[in-house]
């Protein structure tokens, strides 16, 4: 369990995926270039087994943007894509109404 105060520390925002490429020497990692309006981030996500780069480009999805940066296979990760842990594959959380890049998820 975490406290509500700890939960409030998460900064979750809508980002638009501008570019996607496979991470070299990694079967399941994709490197995403994500626009959050005022800034861009590089996000590494372990979804390459289920999603091709062409499936993701242009999508507006929620990301946690205030995690400590960390490297995966030598590539810096600056956040986390949020998805549902589906039975067969991760399910992307696409907004069904109009949202803008940088919008905060509350």
Please state the structural category: mainly beta
Mean pLDDT: 96
General shape = globular
The Rg value, from CA coordinates, equals 14 Å
- The string of secondary-structure elements, in order, is HEEEHEEEEEE
List segments where confidence is low: pLDDT < 50 over at least 5 consecutive residues: none
Kindly describe this structure.
The chain has 106 residues and is mainly β. The model has no long low-confidence stretch (mean pLDDT 96). Strands 3-2-1-4-7 form a 5-stranded antiparallel sheet. It has a two-stranded antiparallel sheet with strand order 5-6. It is 8% helix and 40% strand. It has helices at 4-7, 53-56, and strands spanning 12-22, 30-35, 40-45, 60-64, 70-72, 75-77, 80-81, 83-85, 90-92. A hairpin with a 2-residue loop joins strand 5 (70-72) and strand 6 (75-77). It is built from 2 helices and 9 strands; from the N terminus they run αβββαββββββ.
Topology of this structure?
Elements (H helix, E strand, L loop, with lengths): L3 H4 L4 E11 L7 E6 L4 E6 L7 H4 L3 E5 L5 E3 L2 E3 L2 E2 L1 E3 L4 E3 L14
Antiparallel strand pairs: 1-2, 1-4, 2-3, 4-7, 5-6, 8-9
């Amino acid at each position: 369990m975490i406290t509500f105060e700890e939960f409030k520390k998460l900064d979750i925002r809508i980002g638009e995926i501008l570019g996607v490429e496979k991470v070299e020497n990694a079967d399941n990692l994709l490197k995403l270039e994500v626009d959050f309006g005022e800034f861009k981030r590089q996000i590494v996500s372990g979804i390459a087994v289920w999603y091709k780069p062409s499936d993701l480009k242009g999508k507006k999805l929620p990301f946690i943007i205030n995690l400590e940066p960390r490297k995966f296979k030598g590539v810096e990760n600056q956040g986390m894509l949020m998805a549902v842990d589906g039975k067969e594959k991760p399910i992307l959380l696409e907004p069904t109404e109009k949202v803008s890049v940088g919008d905060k998820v509350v």
